[in-house]
Design goal:
- This protein is mainly β and 171 residues long.
- It folds into two domains: 1-44, no CATH class; 47-169, Nucleoside Triphosphate Pyrophosphohydrolase.
- Helices cover 15% and strands 37% of the residues.
- The chain contains two helices and eleven strands, in the order ββββββββαβββα.
- The chain has a four-stranded mixed β-sheet. Strands 5, 6, 7 and 11 form a four-stranded antiparallel β-sheet that branches.
Amino acid sequence: MEVEHRSSEYNFCPRCGHRLEVRLLKRGDPERLVCENCGFVFYLGPKLVAGAIFELSGGIVLIQRDIEPGYGKWTFPGGFVERGERAEAAAEREVLEESGLEIEINEIVGLYTYEGEVPAIAVFAARVTGGEPTPLDETMDVRSFPRDGLPWAQMAFPSTEQALKDYLRRL
């Protein structure tokens, strides 16, 4: 199993500032970045993303991304969970930041991970509690699509398509 890092990304220990080196600590595990001075192990785990699927005006709300990756493509609002933040709270925050809509989380739709990819994506079903759909941070458009008229060919990520299909199956 290979180490999940690019050697040019992380060269120095965040604790003491000395060089990191790649070591195999335990057979069967991937190689890890380890400080050659203090022995600190720099574990590179996944980064959690939280998003929400919800409906407004009889359709599913999607945002059109104004950033890479996925520039110009459609997805549900979502983004990275901050350290110490609940995933549900992150989804609510991201929806407000990207679409101007306030939501309340109902339940989880699914958790989506992909081999070789860093993010793990937690997707929740939600309901709108306030606000007006407005393209805001990182968003060029906010639109409500009928369930039978989703822009499948223009989805930003595999997780977008998979989560929407899981959400629609539950109805």
